[in-house]
Amino acid sequence: MKKVSRIFAVILAVTMIFALAACKGNTDPAVDPVDNTEMLKIGVLKWVTHGALDASEDGFIAALADNGFVEGVNITIDRQNANDDMSTAATIGDRFVNNNMDLVLAIATPAVQVMQNKTETIPVLGTAVTDFVEAGLVDSNDAPGKNITGASDLTPVAEQFDLLLKVMPDIKTVGILYNSSEDNSRIQAETAKDVAEERGLTVEIKTFSSVNDIPQTAEALAKNVEAFWLPTDNTLASAMSVLVEKTLGNKIPLVCGEENMVVSGGTFTIGINYYELGYQTGEMAVKILKGEATPATMPIEYQNNVAIVIHAVNAAEIGLEFPADILAEATDVSAV
After folding, report:
1. Cα–Cα distance measured from residue 83 to residue 227, given in angstroms and rounded to the nearest whole number
2. Average pLDDT along the chain
């Protein structure tokens, strides 16, 4: 009987091993989901749809999955879009608070400001935000102090103007266009003005408050300058086709704040990658979800990798030629 019992015990052990293996099912063996007793709730508040913000969202969710937080397995994700409307964003913020979200990703400065007004307890990760301190979101970049932290999309303004001067060495005038209601755009525009003037350029600035004002404002600016410099302005990014239409005929190149604006028809940039920025923000979220850090003590992060991106087709249409060394380094996105 003892021999039979031992055989039965072995059979039972093997059966349990196969059962456990079956329970893992289709789980990626490289990254198993984090073992949570209940589903964590993640809210995503995106200010508006355009290439950069969409890429940030995709990168964020990919980082969560790569670190074991898998949608439908141990987290739920409530994706919401404010469509560039403050009242819509406020309603979404209330929704997230009422649903007791475990963490919120707020994409773009206005979205983070909305969440700041809605909760002091839910961890909020901001991404595609230029200056967290200037926007009044944190106490300092090194020690945010409350429930908000994130990753900045501070664009390399000086490098962009140096690239402009290399492409157009005889340029004398540049126009800066931005939405006056976006804090991140104002901050970048002020920096760009200083950088341009330091390089001997004459600067003309025009602002707008509505997407409907862009055609007329751009047309007026194009009469007085040789090139436009555009910040990572959410309204401009969502209306690039309108801006491109108004500048191509005037042979005005568009130096953009980030690559997705070039994909949409801008002429060139040297800038950060928003998918990578979102991924970086997602890795910050992982530390919070695992209880390894809190927003109050997690410093604002930056992205140091930049790349040259050009739209060769539109550049050729306005008669702009890139030096050979720039072409060798650049990525042409005109076929995207």
Report:
1. 29
2. 90
Q: Are 128 and 108 in contact (CB under 8 A)?
A: yes
DSSP state, residue 168: S
Query: pLDDT tens digit string along 22-41?
Result: 443 343 434 567 665 579 99
pTM of the full predicted structure? 0.81
- Domains parsed from the chain with CATH numbers: 40-153+274-297 (3.40.50.2300), 157-271+306-332 (3.40.50.2300)
Under 8 Å CB-to-CB from 328, ≥6 apart: which residues? none
Rounded-to-integer distance, Cα 151 and Cα 149, Å: 7
The residue among 236, 237, 239, 306 whose CA lies nearest residue 269 is 306
86-98 vs 109-118: helix crossing angle, rounded to 10? 50
C-alpha span between 105 and 92 (Å, rounded): 12
Q: Which residues, 6+ apart, have CB-to-CB distance to 23 below 8 Å?
A: none
Structure tokens at 192: 């760009």
Q: How far is CA 30 from CA 27, 34, 58, 65, 68, in A?
A: 9, 12, 20, 11, 10
| CA 272/CA 132 separation, integer angstroms | 17
Going by the DSSP 8-state scheme, the letter that residue 78 receives in this structure is E
What percent of the chain stands above pLDDT 70? 89
CA distance 96 to 100: 6
The region, left, alpha or beta by phi > 0 then psi within -120 to 50, assigned to residue 248 is: alpha
Phi/psi region, residue 69 (left: phi>0; alpha: psi -120 to 50; beta: rest), is beta
22 phi and psi angles, rounded to 5 deg: -65, -35
Dihedrals phi, psi of 36, to nearest 5 degrees:
-105, 145
